[in-house]
Amino acid sequence: xxxxxxxxxxxxxxxxxxxxxxxxxxxxxxxxxxxxxxxxxxxxxxxxxxxxxxxxxxxxxxxxxxxxxxxxxxxxxxxxxxxxxxxxxxxxxxxxxxxxxxxxxxxxxxxxxxxxxxxxxxxxxxxxxxxxxxxxxxxxxxxxxxxxxxxxxxxxxxxxxxxxxxxxxxxxxxxxxxxxxxxxxxxxxxxxxxxxxxxxxxxxxxxxxxxxxxxxxx
Length: 218
What we know:
Mean pLDDT: 84
Helix content: 10-25%
Number of domains: 1
Strand content: over 45%
Radius of gyration: 22 Å
Number of helices: 3
Low-confidence stretches: 11-16, 19-27, 194-209
Order of helices and strands: HEEEEEEEEEEEEHH
Number of strands: 12
Distance between the termini: 62 Å
Shape: globular
Structural class: alpha+beta
């Protein structure tokens, strides 16, 4: 009788452990996952953001951003920002995006105004992202790929850019043709940016001042 009870307890324990493992596995598979890699440094990304700034030319101006859990001075963090032109309103169409100009506003392109940062104490001031200690890089070539754009997004970037190394908030060095990459799969929080027109000669400078990146830091 005692052996039967022991056997039942053992079976129950194994089943309970199996259910717990399955639950943890499901939670893990539903979690946002990603990374930013600049040179030899890598930081995990945990949340995505998409802002629709309206139609520009024959495409829609979409800002896509990612961040790590921490972007404070306590540990290395990361922020990824790309300005892209999509054929879809309020969404990034699936496909490959290449480097292009803002004035052309061609679908399936990203502009030079993108910026990725890796290091300590990342902030946004006066419409620009800044970092106290670490690396800030702007893309000059590469491919931004959108594989999934539904409930979950799956995006990646592989390319090169101009990197600025910051120490105590001051540029200590600059380097061209620095390789960097990004991957992300997970949720994306969507919001509407301010609509704009591009008739004025200084439309780009006026427009970029409206992009304060506040969604990343709220």
